[in-house]
Design brief:
Helices cover 20% and strands 26% of the residues. It is α+β, with helices and mostly antiparallel strands and 466 residues long. The strands form four sheets. Strands 10-9-8-18-19-20-21 form a seven-stranded mixed β-sheet. A seven-stranded mixed β-sheet has the order 11-12-13-14-16-15-17, with helices on one face. Helix 1 packs across helix 4, helix 2 packs parallel to helix 4 and helix 3 crosses helix 6. The radius of gyration is 21 Å and the shape is globular.
Length: 466
């Protein structure tokens, strides 16, 4: 298996040179499930007439031909092409390549692009690995992306600051150019060709520094994301599709399932109030619609999925007097959500964040924002991919670790499903694969079982730096 994967990675790395005449950016793959995926690429020519070949064989025997999906809008660049793949087999390696009439006469191997593996069947016992991180300079070619690829995760969760363009103009083409720069990086391009991506933004890639719902580039950012990013279905769009005047100007919150784990990915920028607004019951990070969506998702997952990852660009764990950008600046809303989770018996949650340029973790002991204590779920923090260090949030049960000069950091999460419980191992790694921090915990798999998140209820929790 390793030799096959190694050969595939070499094929993917060769792809940018071999496909230079056709594919100029990407492809990148996302929205992967047990039987589907989305692929997006920018071509050198108009995408009219392009198609995708997909096969379970590296030599493309019996390849299926996939026609492009309808562009998200009339303003989508004509060179962008999006494919929706369906009817795939679970846990199967899928090889793909983009084709176009202008490529006629070139050898088939010259258009080979990459691969991805579909997820296990939703709800079935399955162990898996994913990587996460945030904060990379625009078009970064840092070797940390090579290390992420070498870990062979099921997907890479990039939690904001994919670029640092700080766009303050309501021009969609500015965001398209920023995505072009990201996918122009050789190390990132190689990663996204063979590892599915799940992407939500933070401030620097949503708008200007410290951006919020008042960002002058808000509408362009929301539109460009829908144009260029291979994302899971957006519940806001699905809900608006039932109205006569469909609006695609809402949050990019989305959800997906891998085995017996549910992932709820938040949009903490497009709906939030400015941090300088005094904290109150009216101040919000999520907005009314997204908060209600999160609560519906948590209730639906409660007795179905023993492990629930909530993904936020900024950290949950924070002293309320902390003036840095995190949930501490929205303490009333955080307490409201904490009270709601405790009241509704929501267990098995793990919070994942980026933004702060450090590795850190909390086993749940400091997560007691509900009125009567709790919800005591663990929190995992990983950044930066290639930036300098900074401390935000806390206190943490596993103290923050900053990057050395020139070092890149990311998080790697291994979920081992043992039937009666799910063991979670979080490690903070650098670009050489050196472990700098870890936290281990378990959640029971029985539906409705009590959470073992609190430290006093789970003495086996382990966390330390290296």
């Amino acid at each position: 298996m390793r030799s096959v994967l190694s050969a595939l990675l070499l094929l993917a790395l060769a792809g940018p040179q071999l496909c230079a005449a056709l594919v100029t950016r990407g492809p990148w793959v996302g929205a992967v499930t047990e039987n589907s995926a989305v692929l997006v690429a920018r071509l050198e020519v108009r995408a009219d007439g392009a198609w995708l070949e997909v096969s379970e064989s590296p030599d493309f025997r019996g390849a299926r031909r996939i026609e492009p999906a309808t562009p998200p809008s009339e303003e989508t660049p004509p060179e962008l092409v999006r494919f929706t793949l369906t009817d795939l087999r679970p846990q199967t390696l899928q090889y793909y390549r983009v084709r176009h009439p202008s490529d006629a006469g070139r050898p088939d191997e010259a258009t080979a692009a990459g691969s991805f593996r579909t997820f296990p069947r939703a709800g079935e016992t399955a162990s898996f690995r994913f990587a996460f991180g945030s904060c990379a300079s625009t078009g970064s070619a840092h070797p940390v992306f090579e290390q992420i690829r070498a870990q062979q995760p099921a997907f890479f969760l990039t939690i904001g600051d994919l670029h640092y363009e700080n766009i303050a103009e309501n021009r969609r083409e500015r965001f398209h150019a920023a995505y072009d720069a990201v996918l122009g990086s050789p190390t990132q391009r190689a990663l996204y060709r063979v590892v599915p991506v799940v992407y939500t933004w933070d401030d620097h890639d949503f708008g200007p520094n410290d951006s919020n719902r008042h960002s002058p580039s808000r509408l362009a950012s929301l539109a460009a994301y829908r144009d260029y990013v291979p994302h899971h279905p957006l519940p806001w769009d699905a809900e608006q599709a039932t109205t006569p005047d469909q609006r695609k100007d809402g949050p990019i919150a989305q959800a997906f399932t891998l085995g017996r784990a549910r992932f709820l990915v938040l949009d903490t920028r497009s709906e939030r109030d400015a941090v300088r607004v005094p904290d109150s019951a009216a101040k919000t990070m999520l907005g009314a619609w997204q908060k209600a969506w999160l609560q519906r998702e948590l209730l639906a997952a409660k007795d179905k999925f023993p492990l629930i990852f909530i993904v936020s660009s900024v950290s949950w764990v924070s002293n309320e007097t902390d003036k840095r950008d995190n949930w501490g600046r929205f303490a009333t809303e955080r307490a409201e959500l904490s009270d709601w989770m405790v009241a509704h018996g929501i267990t098995g949650v793990c919070f994942v964040s980026g933004d702060a340029h450090m590795l850190a973790a909390d086993d749940g002991r400091h997560n007691a924002y509900a009125r009567h204590g709790g919800p005591h779920f663990p929190a995992l923090q990983a950044a930066p991919l290639d930036r300098g260090g900074s401390i935000k949030g806390g206190p943490w049960s596993v103290a923050p670790v900053l990057p050395d000069q020139g070092e890149g950091q990311f998080g790697l999460v291994d979920v081992t499903d043992r039937g009666d419980r799910l063991d979670v191992l979080f490690r903070g790694l650098n670009q050489d694969g050196r472990e700098k921090l870890r936290l281990e915990f378990s959640v029971p798999a029985a539906a409705g079982a009590r959470s073992d998140h609190a430290l006093d209820a789970h003495p086996g929790a382990v966390g330390h730096q290296k």
